[in-house]
Amino acid sequence: MGKIIVAGIGPGSPQDITPAVLEVVREADAIVGYQYYFQFIQPYVREDCQCIDTGMKKERQRAEQAFELAEQGKTVVVISSGDAGIYGMTPLIYEMRRERGSDIQVSSLPGISAFQKAASLLGAPIGHDMCIISLSDLMTPWEVIEKRIVAAAMGDFVTAIYNPKSHGRYWQLYRLQELFLQHRAADTPVGYVRQAGREDQNVKVTTLSAFDPEDVDMFTVILIGNSQSYVADDKMITPRGYYRDIAQDQGKVGQNIMIESFRTIEGELRRKDYPLDHKWALLHAIHTTADFDMENILYTDEGAVETLYKKVRSGELKTIVTDVTMVTSGIRKGALQRLGIEAKCYLSDPRVAEMVNAQSLNLSISQLTRTQAGIRLAVEEHPDALFAFGNAPTALMELCDLIRKGKARPAGIIAAPVGFVHVRESKHMVKPFRDIPKIIVEGRKGGSNLAATLCNAILTFDDAEQLKPGRDL
After folding, report:
1. What's residue 356's pLDDT?
2. Is residue 382 annotated as a catalytic residue, yes or no?
3. How far apart are CA 221 and CA 236, in angstroms?
């Protein structure tokens, strides 16, 4: 009785064919396969070996010929590129054996898959959980493929893409890119290799947003990184987590938890194309509140966070003034010290009480709150500070009045008072000052914790690109 051995011959390079596969090729009485693949094994085939090659889309025909030859008592090797068990002939051979009720012995030998070869050429992109998706809808309805794409993107899997394109399938890869961008950051690394292991091999690394589907064909394997993947020295790397453990051992547990939290938040954002400085502020706001409504209500002027950070770095911005002490307490002391910034709140200044008491004696003048008085004092001493409000809308309104009178010229404003009386109005009053960089938590929401974390976002903006918050914890 003959037998069938299904063998993966690797992606194309002779060096990538395993010794076990070469051995069965040398011993085969017959070899069945797609005609294109015979060029890779020809030097190892016996002269008397019967070679049966067929064109594309003849898989069932090849399988039937293999069984017919094996039933004649021959040792038959069925070849597939890469690994025969991955989109190859192995499943078909086993299915046909059951369908025919055959007692022919069937076995399989693994091969180096195209995604493994591509990964080795790209660096180390599959260092963590991954999946493989074929975009060919010949055997699988597109609706099912699309569900798998979304699941892979949402699950943060490193994803290998097979059969990305053909003459008749030109739009599917564009749709995959669109779906991934709904769940992954635009700068997610993407690597792709054409003709891996062959003479005209071509290796490229780009990002998810910059990736051009027109640059690939049927002979290309694409690898999309996960949220932790990065590019270094033109190599794509997905860390397993070893250095994270070392960092934790060195006492950076808090920072690593914060980094992981930020990555989780980023993965759940509805939009993936926020400008970096807005996204950095947004991640801080959501991390502090666990409120994804911040996507709807956090407003930043274009480039506001980056502009204010540059003012800090240049020494132009030296003071942060807050409306209440809770905001000052929430601004990281390590960041203030590192950058030479002073954070001040005038609420407990004895002059504030004097100012409020003096005005209370004049019944013809509307009463002054302590936070308003604190802002008046702050403007006298630091008219060009960054002003951060997390509690008192009256204090924010006071600053707006002083700006209009030409007494204050803030480097920037963080408007996040919380409450029900005059809160929305105070935030509306800030927006007309178009030449002042502003960060505003719209509506009733806000709070001292939000105002403080938005200050921290500004002070650590140089960590935004690498998504590494918590340096000063």
Report:
1. 84
2. no
3. 14
